[in-house]
Design brief:
The chain is an alpha/beta fold. Helix content is 38%, strand content 17%. Strands 3-2-1-4-5 form a five-stranded parallel beta sheet.
């Protein structure tokens, strides 16, 4: 069952402002994996559950074009309003019915979104749209990550974040429990692709 969240206009505005974006380093690791498994050129990437488009923009630096999809009209509206890369197209779509042709995509990503999808249906759709040797990247972060910022000592920043997360834990979605890591690990083990990296 898919879970529908992050849909209102106010939520989309907050999501654009405060969502933790993947790092350039992480995106480069994904791109390196695609190059190793498929090779260049990198024609088309599909970012599923794109929200307000932060990850889609990062992919656009590496691919000729990116299609970014989300189930929320407000998120797509926010992404289009703040679009900065001309090679990104935003589309309203569920993760379980992707608006692309079979065998057309070099890379499918879901950045901090896979856990909200009907996972078996999404994985089947991702497999359908991928080219031979195309790649699937399911990215997420955990609350035990180490944070750093040039204007704040890491120990101080991480202590503040731990206090913040401790206050939030009672309000976490029961769907995710306290962490989504086991859900991702289970899916990783179940995906039948011969070449995988955790």
């Amino acid at each position: 069952m898919a879970h529908r969240l992050f849909e209102g206009k106010e939520h989309a505005e907050a999501y654009l402002r405060f969502r933790v974006s993947p790092s350039d380093h992480l995106i480069q690791q994904v791109v390196d994996f695609v190059e190793k498994k498929k090779g260049r050129p990198f024609d088309l990437a599909l970012d599923v559950g794109c929200g307000s488009g932060q990850g889609s923009t990062l992919l656009a630096k590496h691919f000729a074009s990116v299609v970014a999809t989300d189930i929320s009209p407000a998120q797509i509206e926010m992404a289009v309003a703040h679009a900065s890369m001309p090679n990104v197209t935003y589309k309203l779509s569920t993760a379980e019915e992707l608006p692309l042709a079979t065998g057309s995509v070099d890379l499918v990503t879901a950045m901090s979104a896979f856990h909200w999808f009907d996972r078996p249906c999404f994985l089947q759709e991702a497999h359908r749209v991928l080219k031979p040797h195309g790649c699937l990247a399911l990215l997420n972060y955990t609350l035990d990550m180490e944070l750093s910022h040039e204007d704040c000592p890491s120990d101080t920043l991480n202590a503040i974040c731990e206090e913040f997360y401790a206050a939030l834990r009672p309000h976490f979605s029961p769907h995710l429990r306290s962490t989504s890591k086991p859900l991702y690990k289970e899916s990783y083990e179940a995906i039948p692709y011969p070449h995988k990296e955790w």
